Each structure stands twice: as C-alpha cells, then as structure tokens.
Amino acid sequence: VIELNNVWKIYKTGSIETPALRGVNLVVGRGDFISIMGPSGSGKSTLLNIIGLLDKPTRGEVRLAGRDISKLSGREMAYYRNYYLGFVFQRFNLVGRLTVRENIELPLIARGVPRSERLRMVVKALSMAGGDESWLEKKPTQLSGGQQQRVAIARAIVGNPLILLADEPTGNLDRASAKVVMETFQALNSRGLTIVLVTHDPEVANCSERIYVIRDGTIIESREPVKS
Amino acid sequence: VIELNNVWKIYKTGSIETPALRGVNLVVGRGDFISIMGPSGSGKSTLLNIIGLLDKPTRGEVRLAGRDISKLSGREMAYYRNYYLGFVFQRFNLVGRLTVRENIELPLIARGVPRSERLRMVVKALSMAGGDESWLEKKPTQLSGGQQQRVAIARAIVGNPLILLADEPTGNLDRASAKVVMETFQALNSRGLTIVLVTHDPEVANCSERIYVIRDGTIIESREPVKS
Ligand SMILES: Nc1ncnc2c1ncn2[C@@H]1O[C@H](COP(=O)(O)OP(=O)(O)OP(=O)(O)O)[C@@H](O)[C@H]1O
Ligand SMILES: Nc1ncnc2c1ncn2[C@@H]1O[C@H](COP(=O)(O)OP(=O)(O)OP(=O)(O)O)[C@@H](O)[C@H]1O
Ligand SMILES: [Mg+2]
Ligand SMILES: [Mg+2]
Does the distance separating the beta carbons of A174 and B40 come in below 8 Å? Predict the structure, then answer.
C-alpha cells in the first residue's frame, strides 16, 4: 500500500544542500506494522513526511494505494491525505486557539461527519490514546507535554484512516502511558490499520512486526524485532 | 540553593481548578544533580517552571540562593533568570525567525558579552550538546527534532549558569546523542553546575545522584539511582 523507489530528498538552504534521503527503497504491505529507527538527523521525519504527502521527493517514485503520487492532482492529494492518512507529528502541531475536542475532530469535519457523531468518535479516540475526557474543553497549552501528545494521537486515529504515520508518538510519555498507546496501535493494526512508526525507543519498535534502520538518509538494515 | 516549602500550584480554567502541585517540599544543595520522574501530567514541568521563576506558586515558599523569590522585585527576578538559570524547555521554545547561532547566543546578549567572545562560546556550547557547526546559520525549522533539542540544550548552558533546569532534554534523541548530552551534564556538574532534570527515561535518571518520584502533584519517593 506504500512503495518508495529510489527516493531522494535534498533540501536547499541558500547555497547549502542537505541530502536528507539518499535513495530510499521501501515496500509496506496493507495491514503491516513497521517501525523506523535511526540516529537523530538520519532522515526519519523527512521520510514520513514524503509518505504522508506533506512533501515531495527530489528524485524517485512514491506510490500510495497503487497510484504514483506525482500524477495526482491537488484535489486528489488532499483527498488521500484526509481519508487515507492519520499523522502524529513529532512536534504534535495542535492548533493553539482550538479546544482539545475541536483539535481531535478536525479530520471528521473534513469528511462531513455530523456533530453528534463527531463527539462520540472524539471521546472514543481520546480514550484509546490513553487520554481523559476532562481535557476536552481545555486548550492545548493547558495540558502537559505528554497529554498534548496523546491528543495528537487521538486526532490521527479518530477518522479510522487506512494508514497511520506516527513520528515518535511516545517521546513525551511515561512507561505506562506509552504502553496504552502501543496496545491501541496493536489493536487497530489487528483490525487492518497499516502503521509506519518512527521511534528512538527499542521497546516501542519491538511492538511492530519489522524494524527498518536508517542512517544518513539510507535504509541500512531491516530486521525482526526481539520479542520480550 | 533551591528550596521549596509546601508549594502548591492550582491552575484555574474558567470554573475548573486543576491542582498541578499539592504541597511539594524539595531541597537541592549547591552542586547537586537530581532528577524528577513521574507519570505524564503529574506536575514535573509545573515544578520546573516554578523553580525557574517562570511561574509563581499558588501557595508555599520558594527560595533561590537563599532569597525568598516572592520578595524579589521584577528586576531582581529577571536578573536571577538571566544570570543564575539555564532552562531546557520540553517544547524547546526556540525562536523561529532567528538562526541557530542567534538562538544560542541570546543569554550572552542579555549579559553584554562582546560579539567575538559570543561566537566562541556558542560554538563550544553547541559542541558540548553534541551538535554540529554546520547548523549555525540554519533556522530551527530546518533542523530535525533531535537537532533542535540539542540547540535548546546549548542555549541553556552557553552562559555558564549556576543552575540548569532541563525538562526531558533527551526525549527526541537516539541513545548515542543522549549519551553525549548526559556526559556533558555530568562534566558540568563535576565543575559545580547544579542540575535539576525531568525525565521519563530511567537510564537518564540513573546518571543523576538522586531520583525524586512525583505523582499527582506530590513527591512520593526519593531514592538513589541504580548504577549500571
Ligand atoms: N496552563 C494550565 N492550565 C490548566 N491546567 C494545566 C496548565 N498547565 C498544566 N496543567 C495541568 O497540570 C497538570 C500537570 O502538568 P505538567 O505539565 O506539570 O505535567 P508533567 O508532569 O510535566 O507531564 P508530562 O510528562 O506529560 O510533560 C496536568 O494535569 C495538566 O493538565
Ligand atoms: N527544511 C529543511 N531544510 C534544510 N535541512 C533540513 C530541513 N529539514 C530537515 N533538514 C535536515 O535533513 C536531515 C534529516 O532531518 P529529519 O528531520 O528527517 O531527521 P530525523 O531522523 O527525523 O531526526 P530526529 O530523530 O532528530 O527527529 C537533518 O540533517 C536535518 O538537519
Ligand atoms: Mg524527526
Ligand atoms: Mg512536562
């Protein structure tokens, strides 16, 4: 359902060129649960942004659900992003002036889900992320870092996407909260959700079915997790 | 050098009251290196913000370098914050429109350090944080999450503060980068820097001399780390 062929990403800042991805090949099957590990700066977020249609490669091919994304119109790309993908950002990217409830329901509004149904789905998504209903009318700045992270996770899963892309979704969570999130991811995966998860935490990576190791913009290794 | 006596912090959002800290007592001696662990939402960032003079307690006493901070004038508080404290924020709080170099040198400009001296100190601080000189003219948004975190760490230590307050400083770092940061913290501590570090990572907490465990706004335990 995700296919990357010889994907390159070279950022240009003034006269400086930073090759963030240097020929990445990756195939993710429908229903797979894979994780990507690697040093800081090795290209993980860049890779996830390209898979998530938030960025275009400098070179190479990206296919999503069988379609070459460089052939998609602007409207088609927006459709894919709204209906197929759920994204947990490394910096959360919550909307500061909206309440928690309004933040989580954004993907549902994009799909025209009626109000009464939205609240039910928001409450369920927040609970699956390990969050608490008492947060719903708060603003993101009135939550702790780990609470904000769980709101971001709830937003990513509320619309029942095809593919979940999660960039270090447990970085601000204690062991117990991280465990709730990983159990939710595994439950959703067993019901068909495809998951690509970026993490620095080996215990989190071990919850996936396959670990890809990236270094300096290329995938150097692919292995089975160590089941504990 | 830091003393908290029966510190309470109650946030009020409309009619809702959230007790974030409920009677915290803490004594940190000069040159100590302590860490604070606890579940997400337990009050760690709130505690650090109060120690760092970024917030006032609802009740209770905070003493810094022997002075009751509620008796300090606005100018004195600003002086303390600029000269005594270095702060690594959980969300980094880098200034987006400034370059990395300009971000790191902010504490030095506040102290009137001349330009030529500033560049030398910035380069040294960034190297100690495990960063790279190639980042200096970039903007924060052109760096990866873990790179931004190391810039925030460099900014916190560049001015040779008395006390370093670090809120989950390795949350976005791989093992190797986290190790560089912790070795720098230990080196600075052995030269007299007092460190209060908030973390979810037991391996990071084990680098400190004493671990305080907080839950629901109170410190429930204080223990020696498990040396590995
Ligand atoms: N500005 C605010 N207004 C209302 N409630 C707040 C505010 N800031 C924090 N809180 C609440 O206070 C409690 C403690 O928050 P704090 O940020 O100190 O937690 P934390 O231990 O740092 O958590 P984390 O590990 O997730 O970063 C949480 O329940 C949070 O929702
Ligand atoms: N907008 C940009 N302009 C220039 N360089 C960039 C930009 N975004 C990222 N980079 C560079 O591309 C490289 C890869 O960045 P990326 O964010 O993908 O790393 P990462 O693996 O997610 O790291 P981390 O674990 O720290 O989050 C880094 O060297 C970074 O400095
Ligand atoms: Mg990243
Ligand atoms: Mg916090």
Answer: yes
